[in-house]
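Customer escalation, tier 2.

The customer says the design service returned an amino acid string that "doesn't look like it belongs to this structure." They asked us to rerun it and document both sides in this ticket. The original structure tokens are below, unchanged.
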């Protein structure tokens, strides 16, 4: 069954962001988290960089480790995730006419205490990233574990509002890549997610 995507689309159109709980079921979350951990154990992860041309590793600004998902993966948990994203993209295209053509996703693991300082996801030299999508893979995450995603939402009067999102397992956050600055706060435990971008041609 398709999750109900209408509230998240309404959120993106009205406020520039939307949040949907249970995009993944608890068993899908634990299955994908296990795939992530197995791949990391196998040495497949790398420190994430900043920029797309001269990529630099600056862990004080961005401390996560990532692995790009293969769009042709035959690992069932990964296949199911990407197929679910494909359905979401189809729904967005039918309702918002954003002309999304492509997507790219990576696993991310933030070791305890690491952050991603305030930034915008769209590269200056490449504006194809339309929507940022993050799906959290954390079981039993408590507010006191930290690791919130902070969204800096512009108000009509020119000020801004900080909206914080707890990285609870199965929760999907989607926002306008070119507009919304955001930041990842440090956590007291490892913080797992799949993060990606829905892109135009
Ligand atoms: O994990 C998150 O909540 C946000 C990650 C992020 O901002 C990014 O990877 O660009
Ligand atoms: Fe980001």
């Amino acid at each position: 069954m398709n999750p109900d995507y209408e509230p998240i689309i309404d959120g993106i159109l009205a406020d520039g962001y939307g949040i949907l709980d249970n995009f993944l079921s608890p068993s899908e979350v634990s299955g994908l988290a296990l795939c992530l951990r197995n791949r990391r154990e196998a040495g497949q992860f790398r420190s994430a960089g900043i920029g797309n041309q001269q990529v630099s590793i600056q862990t004080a600004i961005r401390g996560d480790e990532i692995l790009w998902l293969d769009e042709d993966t035959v690992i069932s948990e990964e296949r199911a995730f990407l197929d679910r994203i494909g359905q979401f993209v189809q729904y967005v295209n039918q309702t918002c006419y954003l002309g999304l053509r492509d997507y790219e996703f990576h696993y991310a693991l933030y070791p305890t205490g690491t952050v991603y300082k305030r930034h915008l996801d769209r590269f200056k030299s490449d504006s194809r990233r339309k929507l940022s999508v993050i799906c959290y893979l954390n079981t039993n995450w408590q507010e006191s574990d930290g690791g919130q995603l902070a969204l800096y939402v512009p108000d009509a009067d020119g000020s801004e509002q900080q909206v914080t999102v707890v990285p609870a397992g199965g929760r999907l956050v989607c926002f306008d890549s070119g507009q919304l600055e955001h930041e990842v706060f440090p956590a007291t435990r490892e913080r797992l997610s799949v993060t990606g971008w829905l892109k135009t041609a």
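Tier 2 assessment: The sequence is consistent with the input. The chain has one domain: 6-200. The longest strand covers residues 100-110. Sent an explanation to the customer and offered a walkthrough call.
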